[in-house]
Queue: 2 jobs
Job 1
Amino acid sequence: MLQDRSKRRIAILGSRHVPVVSIHLVEVVARSLAQEGHSLITSGAQGVNSAVIRSVLAVDPGRLTVLLPQSLERQPSESREQLEQVLHLVEKPEHDELPLPMASSLCNQDIISRCDQLICYAFHDSETLLSSVRLAEDMGKVVSLMFFD
């Protein structure tokens, strides 16, 4: 896959709680993929997803799509300023009344349905993320899963 020159839609999802040393790795991967011309898809949470957003915005904002589990207004204030810079932002206000874990799971399903490949950074107890990885595998997506622990 590393030698493949075709452009892909790559979803990157991950934990909100990321070891500081790992954020740099996420940023380098996202930045490199955007520079190679791939389109990246993520969600709007802090941690891994925020690092992806920051990196791709610095390279080419047009290569980034962010799907939110709920409306922008339901996102934490520390995320909103960054999310307002995203050109392709998809909100789900119809999920505002759902518990966040359920809305996040639905959001991850939507993200996976839109991608060719999933890169996921998680902990072994990250139930929502690991469920998303299994879904992507069941859908025949190329999946790379990396654990922080």
Note: The radius of gyration is 14 Å.
Job 2
Amino acid sequence: MITLLALASTFIAQPEPAAEDLLGTWDVALYFSPDAPPSVTVMEITAVNEDGTLAGAFYQSGFESGRYTRRGEDWVITVITSDGSGPYATSGRLGPDGVFEGQTLSTGRDFLMAWTAERRD
């Protein structure tokens, strides 16, 4: 037998994901090695623009280019940063659970690194 509460809960609209969900300071755990504990850094997303571009910084390096898009309930981002060794291509996916999962490719330092991030309170 279906209860009224169960029936009503199927019709309650969930809030649509908003691009503004990307904004903020994110505490990032960087996984340089599968066998080592992660190191930490910060990602800041300071603007999400209607044209799909982002502004911010990752690992104390400003976004040279940044884009976002939505895939279902997830937000997907890609940003390019650089340091003295060359460019970094960073991409991530923010799911409805509020956790980013991503990866960064460094062509100058020759590594691919996985990372996760959670919004700083």
Note: The mean pLDDT is 90.
